[in-house]
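Support request from a user on the community tier.

User writes: "When I paste my structure tokens into the form, the page sometimes reloads and wipes my input. The last time it worked, I copied everything first. Here is what I submitted, just in case something in the input itself triggers the reload:"
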């Protein structure tokens, strides 16, 4: 049963109510290890499900186009103030609908179509919006890509600098979706300065670690910072853009009227709640625990013969190269899902297989850390992980079902925020 329950939905649209309850049960019973996912608090859920969804508020506080903003103005200002205080930034825009539109706003603010931009290639752990060809950012801009090094999986800063000086990009992106190591923001800043480029740090994955003091901050190094609010930061689906005061106007104009219409006020409220939660001391413990859990899981997986890109992790994320196991990432991800471990197949750097059936798996520990698992549980998680891959190799469906049952039994002792089985 939902906490709070869904009495109206159950009557008005039982089919949707039933689907939501089923999804809640699924989230409850599985080790959710998709690196970009988490569990939000009941308070964040309540704000997301509020009547603020009824209100249109195009513009910014005290510069709106419709009347009736007496409540929304201070609400948005509260979210902005909390973001500025938590991250120590001069300017925050909390209106982007999600991470991809936030990144598009950075292009709108600092470049023109056809301009050169530099980002980490998608197969190397970058994001689509860092100029990958199939994305609007790759179609509309002249995107050049840097890589990680073949030998150690770390960012190739010699290449970043060479490309930056040769290509003179308007924007250099740092950050990514499959980087298990600390991002060296000062080093990127030095290169951007030398090349006369705007440094954009996309911290979507690690914003919660930064807020919780478990990863260095790009503040003071990057000209503009984008982040989703729903990954390690543990807020609603949404995004924020931070900048120095110098770039505040350009950022705001790019979001509205450049790209978007009315902000999603229910999301703004939920972002404000998540930022309040992230400023509490317990959030620092959560961020530190994420890193401890990832390290413990990495060690346990290495013990079981798994090959980790970069040899381990500094953050919430592991990238596993299955080449030595002789199985592809896709069948492995599907087998793990059947066994109650939810993650995604992923390319590894210099992958020899195809993007839709690559050699790797990506996982993250934010969700299971929110559930309350600690490093003591990680050897067991690694054992289930390893047994699931073995079950795939041996075509052992019984083993998969056994593991799924054991996982659900363990998780019954770790409450899920927002839902419980009654
Ligand atoms: C998740 C992510 C995004 C995109 O966020 P969406 O909300 O899915 O649009 C952008 N950049 C990075 C690095 C991400 O990890």
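"...and here is what came back when it finally went through:"
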């Amino acid at each position: 049963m939902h906490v709070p329950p869904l009495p109206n939905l159950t009557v008005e649209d039982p089919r949707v109510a039933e689907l939501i309850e089923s999804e809640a049960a699924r989230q409850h019973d599985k080790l959710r290890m998709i690196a970009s996912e988490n569990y939000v608090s009941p308070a964040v859920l309540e704000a997301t499900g509020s009547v603020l969804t009824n209100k249109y508020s195009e513009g910014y506080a005290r510069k709106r186009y419709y009347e009736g903003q007496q409540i929304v103005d201070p609400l948005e200002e509260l979210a902005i103030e909390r973001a500025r205080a938590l991250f120590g930034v001069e300017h925050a825009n909390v209106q982007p609908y999600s991470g991809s539109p936030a990144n598009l706003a950075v292009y709108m603010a600092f470049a023109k179509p056809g301009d050169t931009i530099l980002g980490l290639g998608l197969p190397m752990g970058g994001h689509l919006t860092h100029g990958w060809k199939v994305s609007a950012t790759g179609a509309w801009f002249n995107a050049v890509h840097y890589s990680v090094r073949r030998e150690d999986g770390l960012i190739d800063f010699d290449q970043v600098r060479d490309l930056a000086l040769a290509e003179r990009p308007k924007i250099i992106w740092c950050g990514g979706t499959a980087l298990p190591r600390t991002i060296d923001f000062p080093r990127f800043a030095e290169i951007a300065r030398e090349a006369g480029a705007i440094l954009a740090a996309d911290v979507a994955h690690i914003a919660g670690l930064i807020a919780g003091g478990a990863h260095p901050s790009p503040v003071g190094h990057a000209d503009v910072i984008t982040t989703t609010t729903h990954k390690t930061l543990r807020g609603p689906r949404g995004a924020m853009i931070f900048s120095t005061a110098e770039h505040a106007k350009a950022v705001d104009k790019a979001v509205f009227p450049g790209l978007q219409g009315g902000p999603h006020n229910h999301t703004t409220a939920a972002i404000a709640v998540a930022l309040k939660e992230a400023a509490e001391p317990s959030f620092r413990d959560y961020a530190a625990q994420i890193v401890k859990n990832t390290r413990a899981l990495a060690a346990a997986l290495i013990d079981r013969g798994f090959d980790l890109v970069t040899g381990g992790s500094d953050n919430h994320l592991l990238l596993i190269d299955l080449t030595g196991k002789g199985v592809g990432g896709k069948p492995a991800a599907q087998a793990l899902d059947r066994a109650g471990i939810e993650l995604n197949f992923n390319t590894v750097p210099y992958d020899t297989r195809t993007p839709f059936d690559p050699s790797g798996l990506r996982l993250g520990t934010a969700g299971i850390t929110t559930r309350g698992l600690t490093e003591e549980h990680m050897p067991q998680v690694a054992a289930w992980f390893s047994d699931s891959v073995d079950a795939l190799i041996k075509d052992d469906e019984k083993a998969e079902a056994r593991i799924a049952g054991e996982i659900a039994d363990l998780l019954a002792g770790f409450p899920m925020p927002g839902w419980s089985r009654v």
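Agent notes: The reload is a front-end session timeout and is unrelated to the input. Residues 281-303 form the longest helix (23 residues). The chain is about 45% helix and 15% strand. Escalated to web team.
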